[in-house]
Amino acid sequence: MNKDIGLGIIGLGMGSGNLKLNEREDSRFKVRGICSARSKEKARSILEKWNVNFYTNDYKELVKRKDIDVVGVYSPNNLHAIHCEAALKAGKHVVCTKPLTENLEDAIQLVNLVKKTGLKFLVGQTLRFEPQTTALRRFYDDGEIGEIIFAEAHYIHDSRTVFKATPWRETQKLNPIYGGMCHPIDGLRWFLGDIDEVHAYSAVGGVTIYADPPEMNNFIINIKFKNGVIARALGLFDLVEPPEPMMKLSVFGRKGSGISTHTDNKGGSLDFVYDKVEHKPVSHMEFPPEPGIDIYGHTKTIGRYMDHFEDCIINDKEPSPNVIDGAKTISAGNAAYKSIKNGKAEKVFNEF
After folding, report:
1. Measured in whole angstroms, how far is the alpha carbon of residue 163 from the centre of its chain?
2. What pTM did the predictor assign?
């Protein structure tokens, strides 16, 4: 296959998973440039191994290159808006890892810029591309779940290991209601659509202390969707590592119920119960870990959403989740943050 779609990567943490595209014969993507805070000497082995010809620590140099058609933004969360804006204004399609932004105002600006330029924009929500989660979605699309009655999703883990691997999370004081809660919120939105209102609580766990005063890192968000379905999103990032999966998405319907799970570098599972089967036995499916070249074990998942993005670019399709999906997830987080502050239910802005 012709490697005719030039890809530039900003950030070599999770973004490193895209390097695998360079050796895949079934992908038209080729990483042609990297922007990273590393020195060129430290990055030299990466450049040589993956046959990447350009390296810089200035994102403006990367986005203006004529041999790059798509920019992958994997920089710290608070830089996403700046880097995505620069790429779009340079005429590049964009894939941006979650969260889209760290505030609603930047999200609105990116939506408007994508509409103005007509460029493709994919939000890299890995949960949507894990095989066990896509299997759950297929059960729903095929009518096996039926009308959804209730749903819940969680993202929980001991954040101390994360801070050790990515120290910029400490120094840049990122807001976990956007960077963390975007996983369960987007997962629920994938099945249930627009959110009408939220009511949220937050607390400090006291295990992961990296700010003075300590920041709230544990969240419960009760959600009412536009279609009337209620759901819960749980995010716990300030606790001792719990003995259960890092991510869980549960969907309970009138025909069946399914629960998908995922833990970085450990794989996941899908459990399903059919109401039509007597005694309601549990169908259990195990999904193996998918080790890759990124530290989180998402290389194959990144490959899946890049395959989807390639199809959208070549055949002029709308990516999913797109920039509006990403913005609506940020909007839900914004409403949750307001609810935590005032103790009331808050409406969610969806008019993008």
Report:
1. 18
2. 0.95
User: Looking at the domain assignment, is residue 352 inside a domain?
Assistant: no
Same-domain pairing of 17 and 137: no
Residue range 26-49, pLDDT digits in tens: 999 999 999 998 887 878 888 999
SS3 17: helix
Q: What is the CATH number of the domain that holds 314?
A: 3.40.50.720
125-183, pLDDT tens digit by residue? 999 999 999 999 999 999 999 999 999 999 999 988 777 766 666 666 667 899 999 99
Average predicted confidence (pLDDT) for the chain? 94
Contact indicator for 132, 103 with CB cutoff of 8 Å? no
**48 and 65 fall within a common domain:** yes
- Closest alpha carbon to 12 in 90, 62, 76: 76
Q: Which two three-digit tokens encode residue 185?
A: 């919120």
- DSSP designation for 59: H
Say if residue 191 is in the same domain as residue 338. Answer: yes
Domain span at residue 19 reads 5-125+300-321
Q: CB-based contacts of 320: which residues, under 8 Å, 6+ apart?
A: 122, 128, 308
